[in-house]
């Protein structure tokens, strides 16, 4: 009987190859064509996507990417590659690769690389702490497609979520406490999760439950008044109701309630990206300050710090026990 050889696939959403209109258009076309993300019937959605959304949004989004682009590329990809490299250094005998649901490097490319190294048992970790059909399930779909046509496939251990894993909560607490030590305790600590249409949760997605579990675990772990920890949802798109309360409306409203200082963390993002570096760190800061707030600090994602890499390693170890 052949010996097992483990391999690890880290998966994330993806990013344009460049901060240009054409590259953003290609990326958005792939992302917004996935029925996991937008479940409107294709005959209705495709004309809207190609006739209105892509022509209008591509150049606007490209400008936003230009404002956060790093010397080595898109922050999401730069930090994800660093996560891969640091985890691989911890696990020298286990192949590690990174794949994106949309754009490059693709999940298929990553799986092909791992299979070429003789992997017989694959561990898939979507870097979304909270499960959603729009993110985690999209990774599952991509993994399944990547094995189509292969004579042999490996055993697959798919880690669905880690919303309350002790190492994840501990890493977030350490990050929050470091921010409090640097900036002082705020009037409110705001947890901003990426939103999804409310209808998705009404019809079976457990994402909202997972976000609430993370929020509760943080309230219990922090030495900070639990009533001052707020849960919000960001990045809504379109006209139908999304999960509430909305982050942008909350930032407009808090100063009128006597809240003058906030610190914001995005626990659902494993690495910083457009949604954290531009929407949360810049746009929502402007909303809060312009509405009468005095002090707004964004707490960076865990990215590739040591707590993050140790956390990923522990989650994988626990899945293999």
Automatic annotation (TrEMBL):
Cellular component aspect of the GO annotation: cytoplasm
Keywords, comma-separated and alphabetical: Cytoplasm, Heme biosynthesis, Iron, Lyase, Metal-binding, Porphyrin biosynthesis
Record localization: Cytoplasm
Residues reported to bind Fe(2+): 194, 275
Major subcellular location class: cytoplasm
Xref: Gene3D superfamilies: 3.40.50.1400
Gene Ontology molecular-function annotations: ferrochelatase activity; metal ion binding
Annotated signal sequence range: none
Family annotation (PROSITE patterns): FERROCHELATASE (PS00534)
Catalytic function, reaction form: heme b + 2 H(+) = protoporphyrin IX + Fe(2+); Fe-coproporphyrin III + 2 H(+) = coproporphyrin III + Fe(2+)
Family stated for the protein in its record: Belongs to the ferrochelatase family.
Function according to Swiss-Prot or TrEMBL: Catalyzes the ferrous insertion into protoporphyrin IX.
Protein name: Ferrochelatase
Gene: hemH
